Amino acid sequence: MPPEEAKKKAAAAASAEEPEDDVEMSFLDHLRELRTRLVRALWGFIPGMALAWVMREEILQFLAEPYMHAFRSLGQGEPTLHFGNPADMFVNYMMIALICGGIFGSPWAFYQGWLFIAPGLYRSERRKAIPFVLLSTIFFVGGAFFGYRFVLPPAFDALLSFAGQVGGLRIQPTIMINEYLDFSLRMLLALGITFEVPIVIGFVSYIGLVNWKQLLEFSRWWVVIAAVLAAVLTPSGDAPTMMLVLTPLVALYYVAILFAFLVGPKPPAPTKDDEPEGKAAA
After folding, report:
1. Residue 152 and residue 236 share a domain
2. What's the CA angle centered on 113, arms 109 and 119, to 5 degrees?
3. Is residue 274 assigned to a domain?
4. Burial of residue 187, with CB atoms counted within 10 A of its CB: 0-12 exposed, 13-18 middle, 19 or more buried
5. 186/53 same-domain check
6. How far is C-alpha 257 from the chain's CA centre?
7. Is the same domain home to 176 and 206?
8. Using CA atoms, how far apart are residues 211 and 264, in angstroms rounded to an integer?
9. Which of 272, 120, 99 is nearest to 186 (CA)?
10. pTM of the predicted model as reported, rounded to 2 decimal places
């Protein structure tokens, strides 16, 4: 190979490993860039909010399904939700549009977050924007769906089971729609964010802050942290529902360890100082 061509290839390979925007930025410049990305992310929520407002009744029906199923299982007739203020239904429909619009616009928000951190990455790393956005969206929506399908139904079954006859007294639930939506949407959002654990830990490992071996050693503490999170996120407080939240939290952490093993830095090789004293003496 001619020397000039070899130099060109070496220069191209070197430029591919350099940060694309290797420009020094002050703290205020970073804040301005963060503000720009946040504003653009918020603008991306508007189409999703408009779509959610048009489909507000269908979304409400969808969100109420776990409650309706649990209410019917009590044998007290058709389920009902109540509101005590004339403006409550409008406010609740607005809340549905805001939160569901945020869910619909989450891919755009994840993309803006990637663009904020991308200038400090290498050119080869910037190509991973699409997998990052795709995986973040899949895990977030998957967490919300997991909560809707596997956490809310047993939670409502457990909570509404306290209704019924207590001696000569009939205990009947009167659920306000604003309290129901606040309860359900907070649960779904919390689980959606929780399912981002593999993405966050995988990214931290990818940029070299931790390796898979350190994450594996920390796993015993993560089980304790996950148990506390499950107790906080589980409204009913019963053991089966807590296990439904705890199990994916622990499983997702080990998925993150797998990500770290595949894309993160390798643990340093053990040195003589790390060997047991008896072995070193031998």
Report:
1. no
2. 145
3. no
4. buried
5. yes
6. 17
7. no
8. 6
9. 99
10. 0.72
